[in-house]
Amino acid sequence: MDWPRLSTHTLTFSVLFVAAWLHAPVGVQAATPLTVGPAGTYANIQDAIDAAVVGEDTEIRVQGGGQTYFENLQIPNSFTSGSIRLRGGWDATFNVNSDDPEDTIIDGGGGLRVLDVALGGGAFEIRDVTLTNGEAIQGAGVHVAPAGDAVVTLHNCWITENIATSAGDALGGGIWALLSGSQELEIVECMVMQNQSLSTAGGLANAGGLGVIASGSSRVDIRETEFVENHIGTAGASSAGAAMLLQLSENAEADLEDSVVVGNTGTNSQGQVLGTGSWVVTEGSAVLRVPRTVWANNEGVGGDVGPQFGSTHRGQSSMRMSEAGIVQGDSEGLMIVAEETSVVNLVNLTVADNPDIGLSLTEQGGGATLSLYNTIAFNNGTDLSTSGTVDAGFNLIGVDPLFINPSVFDYRLGIGSPAENTGDNSPPGGLSTIDLDGNPRIQDGVVDIGALEGIAEIFSDGFESNDTSAWSFSSP
Predict the structure, then answer these.
(1) How many domains does the chain have?
(2) What is the CATH number of the domain that holds 137?
(3) CB of 324 closer than 8 Å to CB of 291
(4) Which of 107, 314, 366, 394 is the most exposed place for a label (fewest CB within 10 A)?
(5) 261-317 confidence digits (pLDDT tens)
(6) What pTM value is reported for the model?
């Protein structure tokens, strides 16, 4: 299997994100690791999982080198303490590890989900593997529903080509997680690609890539992860979150950062497609933080096609989105509804080249706080639409910011851009320390407007001298 990485797609957005994959050693390791594969003690991964002792730290080393394991793994609720850390990519000696997820493939066989995590407590981590060819009503690739307080981590995994399907509701083609209490889910440096949620008889089809329902004081951390070409499809009922659906309530918290949501699709011949990229609901006192993330080329077909990113906020919940790009969808870009006493701060966004409304902001009921600062909205069908009380300042709306080359997703600012040094250094919700590319904010005393800081000059001295040491190339 030769699945493309993000570099094979058109998105570069000058972040040109794809941060270096970090492969730190697994934290706690068992004194005697359990080995799986042709050269290991166990032939099957599940046998090693079943051998893990409650209350102890167990490391499971899975032989890679192109091995495929046809299994449907279960982490049982009877495991209530200690840890299980499962890592693929080991050689036949189990001393050298490859961090390529394609080296170790876990294939669900097309009839059941690939991984079911029902952990009763403690911690479970899986890394450096591909989870593929799962099928279930919910969580075809990975289903996370701990029975007790637990920490679940997916690290450097590819979750791809899994299908949630049902005549009724189909939920979470790639990953479906139900969290409560103080449970935690971490998704770090993963690829969630070409998964589907399909309802065959007009039910809900939600979360083609990832779906999370979090309550209590649970926590979700999604970092440096790519959501590519996932799909939702139904006829009749609403469908939501082609790439991602997040629903946070009570005191739950979530971070979505340094990630990319590109090329996801939703089809609905009769009803709505909500969030061709992502759909979010926060309630109670839930908190969502969304820094340095890009949505691009997410599209819907049929029915009432919604935005690339859409969210509704109720109660006393809050969201801060910053240094984000929402570009080149096929309908709306960003749609926000703030109700009751919720607080939403939008800071340093770039919203461009969406054929419908770029920014649709609604404060409903008179008690919510909704602010928009230091943001570019340009070349959308309608750049900005507001309803209710929206605090807006230091934005560049409908004015050409002189992007370098949007045709190749290069949204850096060109020389002479009116967005240069014209923002607010103290916007509602605060200013970030770095931009979408990870460069420092406020390089010349005043912050630039938009997701990216600085002007993309090719040579810093404009060829005025022959001193080549003064020439610095600013690569895209």
Answers:
(1) 1
(2) 2.160.20
(3) yes
(4) 366
(5) 999 999 987 778 889 999 999 999 999 999 999 999 999 987 678 899 999 999 999
(6) 0.91
